[in-house]
Amino acid sequence: MIGQLIQPEIEQLINARNWITLKEIFSEMHPSETADIISDIPEKDRAIVFRILPKENSYKTFEYLEFDIQEELLKSLAKEELAEILNEMSPDDRTEFLEELPGPVVKELVRLLSPEERAIAVKLLGYPEDSIGRIMTPDFIAVKSQWTIEKVLSHIRKIGKEVEYIDTIFATDSAGKILDEITIKEVLLAKPDSIAEEIMNNTYVSLNVMDDKEKAVEMFKEYDLYVIPVVNDENYLVGIVTADDVIDVIEEEATEDIQKFGGMEALDEPYITVPLFQMVRKRAGWLVILFFGEMLTATAMGFFEHEIAKAVVLALFIPLIISSGGNSGSQAATLTIRAMALGEIKLIDWWRVMRREIISGLLLGLVLGIIGFLRILVWNSFSNIYGEHWFLIGLTLFFTLIGVVMWGTLSGSMLPFVLKRFGLDPATSSAPFVATMVDVTGLIIYFTVATLLLTGTLL
Amino acid sequence: MIGQLIQPEIEQLINARNWITLKEIFSEMHPSETADIISDIPEKDRAIVFRILPKENSYKTFEYLEFDIQEELLKSLAKEELAEILNEMSPDDRTEFLEELPGPVVKELVRLLSPEERAIAVKLLGYPEDSIGRIMTPDFIAVKSQWTIEKVLSHIRKIGKEVEYIDTIFATDSAGKILDEITIKEVLLAKPDSIAEEIMNNTYVSLNVMDDKEKAVEMFKEYDLYVIPVVNDENYLVGIVTADDVIDVIEEEATEDIQKFGGMEALDEPYITVPLFQMVRKRAGWLVILFFGEMLTATAMGFFEHEIAKAVVLALFIPLIISSGGNSGSQAATLTIRAMALGEIKLIDWWRVMRREIISGLLLGLVLGIIGFLRILVWNSFSNIYGEHWFLIGLTLFFTLIGVVMWGTLSGSMLPFVLKRFGLDPATSSAPFVATMVDVTGLIIYFTVATLLLTGTLL
């Protein structure tokens, strides 16, 4: 925010090598803003600026930097500086940073950690990708349920400095198994000589360390929480997940779904930084599959070559008809996929959805059918392009559009159910995929209707 | 979570009218789970079950219920019960509840509030839709910067009960203008006789009450916060926004973008509960616009009617060609729109994106062009469908596909920039919209290439 406003000024100070003033400015700046500035200045100045940051700020600032800039800084920093930064990073951000790097580099970096932090890092990196273990932090405050509030408070005062999030603390039994969560509010409002157990209400929820990240998203939405404790299979408290971590997960998931929906593999990297050939590869895959599917249209049309030769006018409406089917199909697929992702509809709702979509498809088909017929009616009064049989051609278009739109709507809405039923990701039924599927059938519907209505006149 | 497991048991207890056991069960249940159970039991039992909930739980449970069940309960509860629930709801959830109801009902309900809560409700409802004012809560703890830590702590103990979120408190000057935010951690770790000002660092960020909700999303992502203070134009602290509110906003926005991207207006309501005719209307709008656009294909093809009559074989590849353009265009549009939504690319990056997309389009077009040519080569060795000029037809397909895919990729990626430049939502450049645009030009490219290569032989 501030970053952009004063950036020219800061650049001047860097050019003038005015470190003292810069140091002052950075010491009053939010680490996120400092990170913005470091991202915007020329590469050669980044390491210098980073070094003049106040110690405490530099750790935080590093966490806020984009991955490629972190990697670049990493190369220019001395081993000792690097060790210090890595040791001071919060464990969840460090895991995220490390998992982007190639294996040998990670090994190298983990060796720089203190024995204590190394144990944490190795443990977090050991959890499967996309598991809660990867986004949790092992920094939390646990108290025994038999302690007095006074003891709880003095415990918080003692170890609070090391812990990022102290607004909720956790009560465990003497072995370390979780019993409940207690908010700092409840602690502050309780009498100092009461026992922690007295302010427990046993209504906590928890995540398993092996659960999928998406589970955390669901629970944060369901329970409106700021933090959720993470336990292992024996119910021992091993970490916490906080709401800010989940905001990133939600955005990532929406991006994946949207990209799949656009008819390609998820990029998993920002558009602007993903290597060009990697991106082309991810896009070519689906494009080629769709192309093979779409080749069936050429085969299908081969069967109707004689009809087209007899009545070339039929060819004119082919793009109009197949795109109407594709568009209505992509609408239906979008709605179904998103409703599934949000948990609004489940597999067993297929019949409810089908009923809705049959009616919607019929109505939408009627609307387009009427417009299509009117187009032929109006054009016919100005020119003779459709010949003497314009009325029959109009009728063909009318019935075809109803059929094609209904079919598009129905297959667009049912395909995600089919995919889900077979354990595949419903988001794969992308707009282009549905359109391709509907194109082939749309042509068959078109020429069937035309044969029925036009044989003896045009055909 | 628990809800589904013990639901049969609970239904049995309801049928047996065993209120005492039920009361016990509900008193130990998370309000969110109680809300799940109330949603799942038959309508006629809901009000009864709701009435046996412990007071404190019933307010919370009401907040967790879906809007239509809240409305239904509202009708069955006595005025006094209703007044109590409304008065105890947290102000931000109450605003959300009230804004869904028709105007006269809102007036009626606001009259049930205590004068204090009424003032809050009227104020929050007065902020524009989609503004921060609508999602903030006016419950927060403010302290004066000159107070001692001891006084701050006793203030928190005094008014903390009334306030939902106390993990961050706010320091103001004597007039109430915000000076800084202080975490409860900083308060707890400070010496009791030091002054609040001493633990301030003046690095807070804030939102204006009239800012758009999306601003809150951006800031939560940028700063990894749990709470952001909200100020008015004079910098007076008027409320706070918490991370859990923002999680809902993010999901809503992703849904809107995805639905627009599927080629329709955003539904603004869950798929399963939105009235059928309202949904059909929202879908029909775009479908009709796209249909009118697509009619241009019929016009364009009218110009090439003689070519088709001469070489019917050209018609066979029309669907294949236009869909390849549409698919590559929808990929490019998806990538660009999402990258814009995430702030990865901005308006000034158009040239960088264009360069990438020209190369991608060329490569993707080459891949499809080669496959298309091979298809004709292979088919030709089995049958005589393409006649003696199969090689020229294959070449036509090859060059057309390169042209169409490049054009699709380019227009798909640039359209979001054009829309954004003119202040429109880039997400409007949906897959179907791009496909329609590319269809017309795709046909022109096809027949132009065909005329160039085939005149004198087939044409």
Amino- and carboxy-terminal Cα gap of chain A: 69 Å
Number of domains of chain A: 3
Quick check: average pLDDT of chain A?
Answer: 84
How many H/I helical runs of chain A?
22
Major sheet: arrangement of strands of chain A: 1-2-3
Number of strands of chain A: 6
Assign the CATH topology of the largest domain in chain A. Tetracycline Repressor, domain 2
Oligomer: homodimer
- Helix content estimate of chain A: 55-70%
Spans of chain A of 5+ residues with little confidence (pLDDT < 50)? none
Largest sheet composition of chain A: 3 strands, mixed
Describe the structure.
The model of chain A has no long low-confidence stretch (mean pLDDT 84). The radius of gyration of chain A is 31 Å and the shape is elongated. Chain A has three domains: 2-128, MgtE N-terminal domain-like (MgtE N-terminal fold, Alpha Horseshoe); 142-243, CBS-domain (Roll), CATH 3.10.580; 276-454, SLC41 divalent cation transporters, integral membrane domain (Tetracycline Repressor, domain 2). Chain A has helices at residues 2-15, 19-27, 31-40, 43-52, 55-64, 67-76, 79-88, 91-99, 103-111, 115-126, 132-135, 149-159, 184-189, 213-223, 243-261, 276-303, 305-310, 313-316, 318-341, 350-382, 390-421, 431-454, and strands at residues 142-144, 168-172, 178-183, 207-208, 227-231, 237-242. In chain A, helix 19 packs antiparallel against helix 20, helix 19 (318-341) packs across helix 22 (431-454) and helix 20 (350-382) packs antiparallel against helix 21. Chain A has 459 residues and is mainly alpha-helical. Chain A has a three-stranded mixed beta sheet. A three-stranded mixed beta sheet of chain A has the order 4-5-6. The interface between A and B is large, with 116 and 116 residues.
